[in-house]
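ok, trying the design again with the full structure, not the truncated one.
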């Protein structure tokens, strides 16, 4: 009930009028064979406009969660990684934000496109972080893709698998690298981003798109949080003339 109330308020905060609220909620209504719907729209009789509260109460939980995510509403009993990630992108990574918003919209109709755009969003975040003058590991080639870029960043974060961190932390770093490598390979080999032939397998199941997009949210939230902890935006050090760094915060690890 709290989630429904939050969605109700978010819809009217975003769209203001009953007509626009109705148009928005109609976008989530699916018509099945025979004319049945996944949920019904309810209306007040006088004047005639949508009874949004009653309509929301008749919507299944899975669809409510999707609506909440789309509106940036935190979801109780679920990790709100998508809303948090969207807000982070809007505030700090505008290029990545555009790609990620397109990815969210493409999940249902074009799952392979959603995966490619999610990869691009994560790649943009890492590139943006590597531009920080306080980071010694610099991107050497503008054509570097997600796996190589993440490798450079994790070296800087002291999370790369061959670092001197505890084995458990190295395992997490190795796992993160493997996930990024898999996402990059999916984009290259199982989507239409690089062109394909009739015999090639292209992902067409939304389940995989949701899995990749949620994985990108988790990784992106972690990378951004680690970066801002290790390199606080209010404490930017300036490189000296001989390119030595005044303070690389090498011991300021958030664990």
């Amino acid at each position: 009930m709290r989630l429904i109330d939050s969605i109700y308020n978010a819809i009217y905060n975003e769209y203001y009028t009953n007509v626009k609220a109705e148009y928005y909620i109609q976008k989530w209504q699916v018509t099945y064979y025979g004319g049945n719907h996944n949920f019904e729209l309810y209306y007040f009789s006088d004047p005639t406009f949508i009874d949004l509260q009653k309509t929301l109460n008749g919507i299944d939980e899975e669809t409510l969660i999707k609506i909440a995510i789309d509106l940036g509403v935190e979801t109780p009993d679920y990790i709100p990684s998508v809303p948090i990630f969207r807000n982070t992108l809007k505030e700090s990574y505008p290029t990545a934000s555009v790609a990620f918003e397109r990815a969210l919209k493409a999940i249902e109709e074009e799952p392979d496109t959603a995966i490619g755009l999610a990869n691009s969003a994560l790649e943009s975040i890492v590139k943006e972080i590597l531009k920080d003058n306080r980071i010694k590991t610099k991107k050497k080639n503008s054509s570097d893709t997600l796996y190589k870029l993440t490798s450079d960043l994790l070296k800087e974060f002291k999370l790369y698998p061959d670092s001197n961190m505890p084995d458990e932390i190295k395992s997490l770093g190795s796992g993160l690298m493997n996930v990024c490598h898999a996402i990059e390979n999916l984009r290259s080999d199982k989507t239409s981003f690089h062109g394909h032939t009739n015999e090639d397998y292209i992902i067409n199941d939304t389940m995989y798109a949701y899995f990749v997009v949620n994985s990108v949210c988790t990784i992106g939230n972690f990378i951004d949080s680690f970066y801002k902890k290790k390199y606080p935006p209010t404490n930017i050090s300036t490189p000296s003339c001989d390119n030595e760094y005044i303070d690389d915060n090498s011991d300021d690890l958030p664990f």
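Keeping the full-length input from now on. The mean pLDDT is 81.
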